[in-house]
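Input sequence (148 aa), recorded before submission:
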Amino acid sequence: MSRLTIERLESWPVSVPLTRPYTIAFKTSDAVEMLAVRLITGGREFGLGCASPEASVTGETFAMCGDALAEATWLHGRKLEHPAALCHELHARLQTCPAACAAIDMAIWDAWAKALHRPLVDLLGRAHDQLETSITIGIKGVAETLAE
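Predicted structure, token format:
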């Protein structure tokens, strides 16, 4: 897997409109502002990740997240043969930027799985064929909440 050398990391802002606005304790949202990440390797594989920073939750602002992603040039030239070891270093370096850390972490594992031509879930030991999901239900009246 020597072709699994990280060449570069790209990031860009993405605004994802919601099908309907929702209200939580500190704001009403009609879109989610995120930073998309693409980690490109020498073997032409690429991994994708996404950051959704929220200063009031983690202390990480959108600008801090973007800066952390732009400054992740220390990844260039690194090998992906052992993604867990690389992710441990990543987490140590980005302690104050958890969304940036999560986005790069996702991209590392995604690139690794793609290079092996296997679904990541299988490489990590698939335990379920399907999972239940949830959505955020905003602050509403009882009847509206139950209906949603």
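Checked by second reader. The radius of gyration is 18 Å.
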